[in-house]
Fold this sequence. Notes:
The protein is an all-alpha fold. It has a domain at 46-151 and 208-280. It is built from seven helices and two strands. It has a two-stranded antiparallel ribbon. A hairpin with a 3-residue loop joins strand 1 and strand 2.
Amino acid sequence: MMQKPDIGAMIFHHTGDSHVIELPFIGEKTLPGPWYIPGTHIDVSPTKHVVFMLLAAFLVWLTIWWGGRQVDRRHREGKAPGGIGAAVEAMVLFVRNDVAIASIGHGGEVFAPYILTLFFFILYCNLLGLLPWGAAATGNIAVTAGLALTAFLTIEISGFRTLGPKGYLKTIVMVPPGMKGIGAVIMAIIMTPVELIGKLVKPFALTLRLFANMTAGHFVILVLLGLIFVFGTAPAVIRYGVVAGSVALTLFMMFLELLVAFLQAYIFALLTSVFIGLMRHEH
Length: 283
């Protein structure tokens, strides 16, 4: 009797990080390592998600470089951008003008390169997870936490530079305008922990939102495909019906995940811009 596959193990094998990568028509290959930091037991050897992050970073550079060349060539010819150049230019202008500058406000153009990098990097990480033999690095909470950490540092450092030490301190020790004396002291004692928690909640929310959305989609797709194997020994009518339904729902989820890939990149870039703007224009 044929043994049913372990659907749970298959799901966690696909969504989890490991030192093994799947290559088309070759199979699984073990990545080099372990590589330890001298004098420590910290392993810094590459993993599957690290490889796909490097690939995503390369694709970001290639997209901007190729799109920029196309736009520059068309401009020299006196023509409007077309093809890939026009698509890249439209996306860049949208993120720059309608996300970064519109949300951050005055001085937002300084942060546009960072917001654009976030958007395209997260987008490619998401899309690579939809390819055969691919993996979504944004389905790793350590990756999303790292991205949120860069946002947190950008938010706080830009706020400190814009508001100055005294103005930045007011974003932590909050006292309502006009309140003095013992009332001001009580409010400062009550509100300071609240403000500090608020600063930490923003990157925490960015971390969990991206991680949960990208992981949940892959779980649903793999569970739907796993139903084919679960009903592998059922009567033919039921088996064929499950296969047809599973494939149809999987295709629907794949199209939905394609939308989610763009949506989550947009949301992460938008919320980061909003948080930067709120900090820089605290008044």
